[in-house]
Amino acid sequence: MYQQIVILTGAGISAESGLRTFRDQDGLWEEHKIEEVATPEGYASNPLLVERFYNDRWQQFHNGCIEPNAGHTALAKLEQQFEGELLVVTQNIDDLHERAGSKRLLHMHGELSKGRCPRSQQTFILREPFGPRHTCTCCIPAQRLRPHVVWFGEMPFGLDRIQHALDSCDLFIAIGTSGTVYPAAGFVDTANHHGAQTVEVNLVAVDRHSQFQYHLEGKASELVPKLVD
Ligand code: BV8
After folding, report:
1. Cα(11) to centroid of ligand 1, in Å?
2. What does the entry list as the binding residues for NAD(+) (predicted)?
């Protein structure tokens, strides 16, 4: 049936695991100004505020109650069963897809479990929240590590690989994303341009609603397993 599938996930696929989204009620952007905590300028002017923003999320991620939900595990199951090419592109910085078993996975907005040297761009796995003791081992003098996440105005990771996958996919599925942040929000246009079938899985109709041929309205943890089976 399908030969090449690209799946884009956003904060909505992790919502039922207990992680806050950005733009829903009680979302992260209700409490924080994007320019203060998710831009390089914000980090330059107040690195401790930005570290606190990510450390709060780190604590949430690592409070022992956050587990992959049926949406994550269904995508991992699809990867194991599907004989064609599958790529999951996530905007999320949590590790729930990995913990569910997904391997053909690309974190286009980075990963909170890593810090990055601002000079060499080398990344380091972090076992605890950001702090002054987190410095690189690649420079002299050692540099304080920054969150390995993509802020507004920064280039997302893996765009060439994503573009290549979109150019040749015959099915594009967007799960739990509001479609407000680019270039991710434009992936559906590329998929449509190349004749792929496009499916949106969301609680509500999103900004780019009209760009999708099919809409599955409801919870990812309920709809994604049905989609995969
Ligand atoms: C860039 C940091 C240069 C990590 C984030 C056009 C082209 C290119 C760029 C732009 C452009 N126009 C504007 C721009 C600039 C900007 C941008 O998009 N601005 C917006 C606000 C207009 N983009 C950038 O700066 C990007 N970089 O452009 O580089 C460039 C130029 C050309 C080509 C390439 C590159 C960088 C963007 C990344 C910013 N970093 N976060 C972090 O802290 O996590 S953004 C942030 O938003 C997160 O990464 C998040 O993943 C992302 C998207 O949000 P969503 O995941 O969609 O979450 P949201 O809360 O919005 O929605 C949740 C959805 O889930 C809702 O729809 C809800 O209904 C649904 N839901 C909830 N529960 C469930 C559910 N669905 C199903 N089941 C449920 N249970």
Report:
1. 9
2. 10-29, 91-94, 176-178, 202-204, 220
Cα of 179 vs centre of ligand 1, distance in Å, is: 7
Phi–psi pair at 92, nearest 5 degrees = -80, 150
Q: How far apart are CA 81 and CA 101, in angstroms?
A: 13
Pocket of ligand 1 contains residue 218 by CB under 6 Å:
no
Nearest-atom index, ligand 1, CA of 71: 78
pLDDT tens string 182-227: 999 999 999 999 999 999 999 988 877 899 999 999 999 999 999 9
Structure ipTM: 0.94
DSSP bridge pairs for 125: 114
Is 147 a pocket residue for ligand 1 (Cβ < 6 Å)?
no
92 lines ligand 1 (CB under 6 A): yes
Structure tokens at 75: 């995508």
Distance (angstroms) between ligand 1 centre and the Cα of 124 equals 24
Active-site residue list: 109
pTM: 0.95
- CA distances for 9 relative to 48, 105, 174, 184, 202, angstroms: 29, 10, 6, 10, 10
Phi/psi-derived region of residue 25, left when phi > 0, alpha when psi is between -120 and 50, beta in every other case: beta
